[in-house]
Design brief:
Blueprint lengths: L16 E4 L2 E4 L10 E5 L3 E5 L4 H16 L3 E5 L5 H4 L9 E6 H19 L3 H6 L10 E3 L2 E5 L4 E6 L9 E5 L4 E9 L18 H13 L4 E6 L5 H22 L5 H15 L9 H13 L1
Parallel strand pairs: 4-5, 5-6, 6-7, 11-12
Antiparallel strand pairs: 1-2, 2-3, 3-4, 8-9, 9-10, 10-11
Helix pairs in contact: 5-6, 6-7, 6-8, 7-8
Length: about 300
């Protein structure tokens, strides 16, 4: 059987989208394993949000950021520890200060090597982009929240608690009313549930619902999801609606004597029927398994 190859997860830095003064996004162009990457400027510093998958992509992002910054100081952060978001950070060493929250730093240290091995096993295309990749070590670690002064612009980095991962953080640019969510929110696809027992069970559907409810209540003007199209508060509300739908459909069946295998099959069929245009159907099964576990707890 011919091995299925994912499309090249290459970050194309041409055509960056300007969202506000001195704030652009390098869009992921709906390519798998390519995140939306933010570049946020102030008078003396520039913050880059996420690196792309591996050294080659990170070098492209660094070159773009260096040119954009025009001698301003560089900072780097990652929305969470997964390889397409963070496993190019070592390329920025010596040129940018890499800062993340405490829980994300622990994710990198404890689970980073395992995720690097797992992603290399996704096929030769992904493995090629991870050649020379290293699990990065942050230069600066904050606890719950950190305000970064870029010069005339403050950017808030905030740990939200367990949801998509243990160390999820959001990045808010208050003067532009822009929110970067990482994989807490995505458009056009089923939510990614990295439920891999016993190796990683930090994703929590219930915690994710609580986080999305808080983010949606703040009603940000512009939302940059981890993957997919940029939008407004509706991006957050759509994810929240889906997570609640996932929980309700799973728990209704979990209250019966139905086996988990049957629950997965039935919920998968229901969700695909309701959202036939969405990508990422492979994440439904792990999402249902996660919610079954939380129901039992």
């Amino acid at each position: 059987m011919t091995e299925y190859q994912l499309p090249d997860p290459v970050v194309e830095t041409t055509g960056a989208q300007e969202l506000a003064r001195d704030l652009v996004v390098v869009p992921n162009r709906n390519t798998q394993l390519v995140p939306n990457i933010g570049v946020i400027g102030g008078t003396h510093s520039v913050l880059v949000v996420d690196t792309g998958l591996g050294p080659e992509n990170a070098e492209r992002v660094l070159a773009f950021a260096r040119d954009y910054a025009k001698r301003r100081r560089l900072y780097l952060t990652s929305t969470h520890f997964h390889p397409e978001h963070a496993f190019g950070a070592h390329v920025f060493a010596g040129e940018a200060t890499y800062l993340v929250n405490r829980a994300q730093a622990e994710d990198l240290a404890v689970k980073g090597a395992g995720y690097l091995t797992m992603f290399r096993g996704l096929g030769t295309t992904v493995a090629k982009y991870l050649e020379g990749a290293q699990v990065p070590t942050p230069d600066f670690v904050y606890e719950e929240s950190h305000d970064l002064d870029l010069g005339g612009r403050a950017v808030r980095l905030r740990a939200v608690g367990r949801a998509h991962s243990k160390g999820d953080q959001v990045i808010t640019v208050p003067d532009a009313d822009v929110l970067f969510t990482g994989d807490l929110a995505e458009t056009g696809q089923f939510a990614i549930f990295p439920w891999f027992p016993p190796h990683d069970t930090d994703v929590t559907g219930l915690g994710w619902i609580e986080v999305m409810a808080r983010l949606a209540a703040a009603r940000p003007g512009t939302v940059v999801p981890g993957h997919g199209d940029i939008g407004g508060t509706q991006v957050l509300e759509d994810v929240l609606d889906y997570l609640r739908e996932l929980r309700d459909e799973t728990w209704t069946r979990r209250d019966s004597a139905m086996s988990q295998e049957t629950i997965v099959e039935e919920v998968r069929a229901v969700l695909i029927e309701r959202h036939p245009e969405w990508a990422g159907r492979e994440w439904i099964d792990s999402a249902v398994a996660c919610l079954c576990s939380e129901h039992a707890a």
